[in-house]
Amino acid sequence: MTSSSLAAPLDVELRPDRPAMLRVDPPDDAARWAAEHREALRARVAEHGALLVRGLGLRDTDQAGAVFTRLAGRLLPEREAFAPREAHGPALYSSTPWPANQPMCMHHELSYPLEVPGLLLFACLTAPEQGGATAVADAAQVLDALPGELTERFEHEGWLLTRTYNDEIGASLAESFGTDDRDEIERYCQANAIDLTWGADGSLRTEQRRSAVVRHPLTGRRCWFNQIAFLNEWTLAPEVREYLLDEYGADGLPFNTRYGDGTPIDEYVVRLLNDTYEEPTRRAPWQAGDLMLVDNIGTAHSREAFTGDRQVVVGLADPHRLADHCPTPEASRR
Q1: What's the pTM?
Q2: Which UniProt keywords apply (predicted)?
Q3: What value does the CA radius of gyration of the chain take, rounded to a whole number of Å?
Q4: What are the structural domains of the chain?
């Protein structure tokens, strides 16, 4: 099945089990090809939520970065990262470091800053031997599939992200905020609706309330847009969770999520959230040279466990400051 509204030779293949796919003959200049077809490619991302382009033959980070900037313009530097990434150039990053044998569950990239990336760009330079797909799921379908009582609570209260920065695990202050200067960090937090507390040992604890459901800035669709399950303690491997609790205590975890009123989220709720993503999930194994574009607000993504080498580079683009993304503390009291 192909889309009739995109002129040949850019016909998009549509199947219910994988992202929309565009197969192309390897161009002499991938960046120039991307510039020539930018509007058509971006239109298909808006239509389908994600687009996998196969055949570009992307080989290195310079080539990937050139394609990204032709498609998206200015790439965004990452702020408030939860784990350090390797930088391959200005705002061009490695995929998030995560054990290869552990999947990364569905989430929206950087859903908790006030300004969120609307577009994600992925380039696969080395494909894994097995697994490792970047799967996608429609956020509006996820919202519709969740129990109404649960989504009503999250809509009413929002969700709370708690973080504790230390020198041993996760992103450092400099990696997350772009500086380790206390005054600069405090100014950033004040400007971005983040509450913070400094520990006597120099550690930093932060809390920020964000909306769990937002309206897509272009389509107006209501989307389940958050990282409630992904950053919750119950999504961690059991042995990792137990180690972190023993080492840092329940209030000192590097990151955790709660209901917007500060109440802990039960394990069964986190399992329910992760399970609900299964039905709308679409996946396609990476091939070396692939490009994938993802609407970060309308589409969640994951990374499956894998074996072998896997090199995927990432760009963030199209910043949006969503009007309904930062609920006021009074909202949870109504």
Answers
A1: 0.93
A2: Antibiotic biosynthesis, Dioxygenase, Iron, Oxidoreductase
A3: 20
A4: 12-138+283-320 (3.60.130.10), 141-275+326-333 (3.60.130.10)
